[in-house]
Structures are given as C-alpha cells and as structure tokens.
Amino acid sequence: MSIAADIPPYEFTELVPDFLKVYCNPILSSSVAFICLTRRGCTGEASECQIVCSQALGPEIYVGCSNGQLLRFGLQAGSPDQIETHSILGTQALPTPKPIEEIILVPCVARILVLSDGQLHFFTLPELDILPIPPIRNVQAVTVDQQALTRSFLHAPLHTVEAVDFCVTKKTGLGLFSLREKLVLHKDFPLSNCRPGARRTGPLLCIADKENFNLLDLRRGTLLPVMPLSHAGAAPTKPIITVIGGNEFLIVSTLEDRGLAVFISGSGDPVRGTFEYSQYPVAVSYDDPYLVALMPDQTLEIRDIETQSIKQIVPAPEQTSEPRRDLAWNPQSHMVPSTQLMDALQLVHTLISQIGALLELHRIDQAVALAEEHRKRLNRDPNAIGYVEAQELRFVHQRIGFACLQDTLFEDAGKHLFTGDLDPRILISYFPDLRGSLFKPGDTVEMFAGITKYLPTAQSVEDIIKNYSPYMVPDTKTAPSTAELNKILQSAALNMLESFLTQYQENRRSGSFQRPPSPELNAIVDTVYAKILARREKNTRLYTLIEESNDLVLEEVESDFLAQGQYNALCKLYERAGATEKQLNLWSKIADGQWSDSDIQDPLTNMFALLVKHRDRQLTQKWAVWLTSKDSVRAVKLITSMGGGKRSKPEDNIEMLEQLRAVDPLAASHFLEHLILQKRSDDRRLHVEFANLCLDQLFDYLADDAISKLWRAKVSGYRKSTAQSSFLSYFVSTTPDSEHKRIRLKTILFLQVSALLNSEAILSRLKEHPSIFSLEIALIEGKLGHHHSALTILVDDLHDEPSAEVYCTLGGQIVSPVLAKAIGESCDLQEWASLLEPQTTGRGRGKSLSTAVTGMRATPTKVDEKLKKQLITILLKVYMSGSEPSVDKTSRLLDTQAMNLDVLEILSMVPPDWPMNAMSTFLSRSLRRLLHSRHEGMITKNLSAGQNLEVAEKTWEIIREEGALIEEALEDDDEDSPLNEKVDEEAASSSDAVVSTSFNEKSDGLNVHQADVVNIHPDDHLPKDEHGQGLL
Q1: Residues 610/583, Cβ–Cβ less than 8 Å
Q2: Rounded to whole angstroms, how far apart are CA atoms 637 and 1019?
C-alpha cells in the first residue's frame, strides 16, 4: 500500500547531543531520544577523538572512534520519573590507538567484528570482551553474509547455532571464513584489484574490481562480470552495492555526474527496472520497501523499491560544516556518521511515526493497513523479526487500538489491543462495575511510555460513549434519540472485553506467553471474565472457567453471581473455595423455593451428599432439623451415620432429640433407637424414653381389635398346646410377619438387655394388660429381683416351662442368645439380637462388657452357682405348690438339675403323697454322685500324702549334703549365762533338735549379722543303724 505524500516514512531523531561530554563523563549524559549519532568539535584533551563509524542493535549504539576506542551506549534512567537517555555502558580499547574503520554486529553468534588499521578484531556482543582469536591482518574490507546479519540474537548455546560466513578482502585475494566458537578459514580466491564495498547473500558475492561489477559464486568458484563501474567515459567512483533480499542486488554505476541504479538477480540478469539518482550517492541502504541514499549534499533520498519513485527527502541538519560520508545499515535502522561533528543523528525507520501521523489525521483504516503490510513483510522472513521489531509492532497496534477505543470502534479496538499484547488490567480499568475492588492502591502495570499520552482520558467506557456525542441533551445515556445507541455501544464494549479476555485465556492455556502471568494478574482477569460470562449467561464457559481457575476472587464475584441468578456457578465456586456452609445455605434457599436455577435439579440430594462427604458432625447437627422437615428418612440416615453419639455429650443428644421431635416424631424415634442400638448410649433418660416409646407403640397396636385378638389368641393357643418350645419361639413362628410383630419383639429384646430402665413404671403399665403381656411382665419382675413372681407367671399363667428353666439357667434371663439370634434372623432384628450375645472383658471372668460400658446387660458367660441353685429351688417350689402340682415336670427338673440341688432340702419339700418312683432317679443319681465325690476326695487325699513323702525323700538327700548353719552367741554376751548352757545341753542330748540353725540352699551361704558360724553335719546328731547309716 502506498502511503500518502504527507506522511513521511522517515525522520531524524537526536540521540546524543553532546557526544564528548557523554564520552568523557558518562554521569553527565544529556537527554536522548533514539537513534543516531553526529559529532561536534570540542576543545581540550578529548578533542582528538572523532567518530569514525557506528552501528546500532535495538536500543544500544556501538561507536568506533579515531583513537581506537570502541564505545557502547544504552538507554538508562536515573529514576523512575526520568526519561531514559543514552549513557555509556562499556568501553574497549584496541591494541593500537588507530581509528576504527568499520563495526559489524553479528547478533546470531553474539560477536562484534571490528576493522582497524588493516586488522580484523573479534569481541563479544554486547560485553565488548576481547575474544582469544588472533586478528586477521592485511585486511582491506570485510563482507558478512547478509542473511546471517538478519538472524535473531543468540538465545541458545553457541555450539548449537549455525556458524556465520564472511569474506575478507586482501591485496592478494579473497579469503572465506566462518565464525562460531572458533575462526575457521575455508578457502582463498586469488582475486586481484578487488575494491571495498562488496556484499554477500548466501553463496553469492557481488564485488567490484577496477572496471566491473562481478558476481562470484563461492561454491562453484565462478566469476561473472555483470556491469561496468562507469558509463559514457565517466571516471569510476566508489562502487555501491546493496543486498535487496534473497539472491538480488542493487548496484549503482557512474553515469556522468549521476548514478545509474540497476537491480540484478543471482544469475546477473536485470530485474525490476532501472532508475537514476540526480547525483552519485555517497551510500545506499535497503530497508524494505524503501531505498535510502545519502547524497553528496548531505540530504537523504528515500525511494519506494517497487515504483522507484521518491517518497521523501530528508534535508541535512542545520549547522553542518562537515559532510557525512557513509550510511551504515543495521537490522533496525540506519546510521549516518560524520567525521568532524560530535552530534549524532540516526535515520529512523518510523513505522511508529507513520502510524502516528495517520492517526492524527484520523485515517485509522490506512494506519491499520500499513501495520498489517509491515507485519506481513516481516513474516516473509522470520529471521527479520527481532526484539525491536516485535516491540514496534506491539506499540503501533496499541496506538491503533486506543484510537479505535476513543472513537467507540470497540471491536477493532479489542483486536488491536490484544495484538499489541496490552496488559489486560489497562483495558479492565475502563469498566469500573466489573473491576470492583480488584485494583489496590499502589498497583502498577508496565506499558510503553509513548502510549500513555494517547490513553483515553475518560474514566470509564460509559464516559467514552457519553463523550462520543457531547451535543446530546441531557446526555447520550438518557436522551431518547440515543438511548438505543447507548445500549448498543455498551454491549459492543462488553463484547470487546469478553473477546479480549477469551483470547487471553486461550493463550494462557496453550502456554503462548513468553513468561507466565503473575497470580495477581490471573486473579483480576479470571474474576472479571467470570462476571462477564455470568452476565451473558454463558454457563458452559463459566463452569469451565470455575473448574480450571484457581485464582477467582470469591468476594468479588459472589454478589454479581447472586444478582445474575448464577446459583449453580456460585455453588461450584463455593465448593472450590471450601465454603461448605455457604454452599448449603444456597441449596436450602433453592429447596425452599426462594431461588431457582435450572442447572440445580435436586438441591436436597446435593446437600445430603455434601454433608456425607465432609462428615462434619457440628455442621450436620446444624442442618439436621431443617433436612428432617424436608426428607426425614434421609435426614435420620445422615444423622446416624456421623458417628458422634459416643463422643458427643448426652445433653447434645437430648437437645437434638427434642428438636427432631418438634419437627417429626417418627424421625425422633429413629434417632433415639440409633442412640440406644448403635451408639450404646448409657444415658438412663434415653433408655427410659425409648422403653416408653416402645410401650406406646404396643398400646397403639392394642387399640386395633384385630391385633389385640391376635395376641390374646397366641397366649391362649400356647397354653393349650403341647409344644416343647418357649412361648417366644411359638409367637415368632406362628405370628405373620408384620410391623407390630417386629415392634413387640424389639421391645422384648430391649427390655431384656437394658440395665437402665425404670422397671417399676414399666411394670405398672404392662399390668394394664396382664393376659397379653405375661412374658413381658415376667421379664420385668425378674429385673426387679422378684424371681418367685416371675417364675410363677411363666409356669402358672403362661405355662412356659422352657422359659422358666432358661430363666433359672441364665440367672434370671428369659431370652437366651440362641433364641435371640433366631428372632434376629427371621424378623430382621439382628442388631437387637446381637446385644444378647455373650461378651466378656477378655479376662474370662464372665463379666459383661456391654454392662460395664453402655448399660446394656448381655447374656453372662458364667452364672453365679449360688443364684442358679436358688432359682432352681424356687422353680421346684413353684412346680410343687402350684394349683396343679406336676409330678412329671418336677421329676424332669430334678433329673436335669440334680447336681445343683441339695438332696436333704429337696426331700423335705416333696409332698408325702407323691409316689416313690417319681423320686427314684433323682435319689439314685444324687446318692451315686455323693458317693463318687467322697471316693474322689479320699483318692485325692492319699495321692497328696504320697506326693508329700516323695518330696520329703528327695529333699532329705539334698539337706544332708548341704549341712547346717548354727549361729553362735554374740561375743559381748555372757558365755556363762543359763540360757547358753541350756542350749548346749539340748543340742547335745537331742538327736533331732537344732537350736539357732538355718539351712541355706544357696552356695554363697547365709549372711549372719555379728555371729560366729560353725558348720555341723546333720549326721552328727541323728541316730544310726548297725551299719552306721543315718535313720529318718
């Protein structure tokens, strides 16, 4: 695209106004802008220093001086509030103080080639350290491959990059070298009369001799003359050769006093066409799509390479007394050094200036086209895109973006601002309703200093829209004629921000950023993006953002989500943030119908699942009552699954029970059963309440005539039957499976096992229906210790002799563990039946663990024999003293329990009119058992006596061998005392008496305090037989 004539493509920019001042005292460096060097004379010692050549790389400038000094300038600022200026960053002196003729920067291998006094030196870039490579001598000119010069800066280990090829022109010929870690000479071409100014691209070298321009193929070694240096008899001048790109060159020959410019291909054929310079140029450089020529009159002539027409003429600076004589190209700009002046000016490629000029003229479309053309041109050669080019593109796109934003071209603004890599926070700052309090005092962002003056001065997008039509009365927002326009523009602005943040999210997800964004930036972007998605009801993307992002600020989006009805999204955010209570509160309001969200189908199920997942007892108790009012079955399951019954205080359980009872009595009963059955609560209040609850349920069933008649029929039928099983077994096997059956069996099991009942109160209630609850009454009588009453009810009223005998066998317990297990399996009451299983403390002493810990009395593993005999005796009395004494029952009981009965006591109880044969079995077994016991005792006694004799025999030999220890009297005692004389006489006269004698079985003897010990053998005092052997 051709740029309008009033938009110049280039401009001069002052870099270092006072070169010597900067050079001699870097601290006093004055203001610089960017890019080029001239020189001004100076008195004193430093006046001998002159600028000979210069080059630039990015914001840094490298200067070669006449005294052999190599200088490096860079942008620096003394403080954050000051503008960056060029200051000296480093210097390096050549071995000899000769002028530096040429500087070549090779960023792809981080090297600097410096030509001075016929020697080519090598330095590091940008440090200016001397490399341990010997200089190349007798050098007239250096030509580096143009393709290598356009490669990007070294960002990898040096050994991994491609070496740089260059040519060295000498008097004797041409040398081909390559440079990476080391300098390597590949080939020499014996060319004579070569002139400086050769240019190389790839394997092609365009070089001039005394007469012609030539193309040298470095691979094949062929030389092709293409055009003479001069035409029409003109004297040859300095040859001008420029690489255009690829395998194309521009050569300028002399035509009288003018210059004839010809484009040639790598094969030497003319291309593009020719054109003439009005004067023969001093130097020509190519900057796509322009040719820049330094003319003898110190002006700069800029031509379009496609049309060869002049686009701009840059006049020479004022106060110029010495001509500039060269034009140095670098990948980012052109340097125009002089020889006698110390001011430095650089010719800058002003894409930024061109874009800025177009935008000042409000030609946004042309500015966009120019930026796009420049981007495409750079993309054609990836090596041409360096740091500076990338920053330049960012700058111009941001400049265009803010211009579009100011003109409410929101869609275009968003595209260009994103392409310009704008910090999202700058754009978000124009949306105060979205940014909320995300920005904190002191927060800063990085942006181009040159962009700040083009930022919209409005505080918000709303103000930008309002300022867009300031003539509307009262304003754009409320004027009827523009209300709809305002709405459309507001929507477009929001679309712009949404699109910007969407692309930002995608780039972050794909890792396209050179450096990862900070957590603070991610938090702001994600939070604002979530608000936009919530307002636009783009739920799928919103849910994805919540699941992927860890930086959303809950406090910022909470109110916005609530206002937009995004309850499901808020729940997801609560879940990620661990705000469980807020999540439950939100679901409860949806369950109550206060709020609604189509994405939340079953809030109650979500609440139950969340509480089960967290297993927080306090949180569950907090929501238990409310959940019970909604779903009592699941609520009770939830409460009973928390496992806090034992660890919680009894008062907490009572309080929870009362709250549940106020909401749902049935749920309260289930919870109470859980505390008794599962948690084994030892709170007497709970046991008493559960017993009353069971009795209430039984009495409620009795109000039903059918159930009442059924239970009465069971009692009557059992009394008349000849079944050998207990009444409880009969009831279980003959009663149809029903809820009332389970309730009665559960009540019996609970009354049997609980040790914390108010038995008197229960008994009084049961006696209201004595004919139906005979078994339950007997059970409670047994708990009260009224064994005679209990057994009488079982035998006389219920005719349940098996239960009566079990009662005696188990020490007052009617329901045996075997029967309880059968009841549990047949009626789904296994948990209740398990309470009656024998449980010991682990020491085998028969103490019930459940009784000691929970107040539940399980079946004892060992019954007190005294109590057992007492109960059997009472049962015999009941059998014998009943209204219908049963000889058979008594006889059977005597036969089975004979070992637990006293014969004499039983004989005194037997009625005189009972036949003798009814007692014969009992008497014979009892007498036989007594005789057996007597004989067993005699045998045991004699065996013990024999064992005693055996032990005495074995120990006698040991005692005889060990001897005896006799304690003598103390030295200070009276040796003539009557007591001592008596002891001596007794020791001498008695054959088996030992006075003050002790036998020590240990080898170390007996320790005697203050006593003389005399060893005496037992044989000396014992009688002997005729053979001299001792006698026992």
Answers
A1: yes
A2: 88
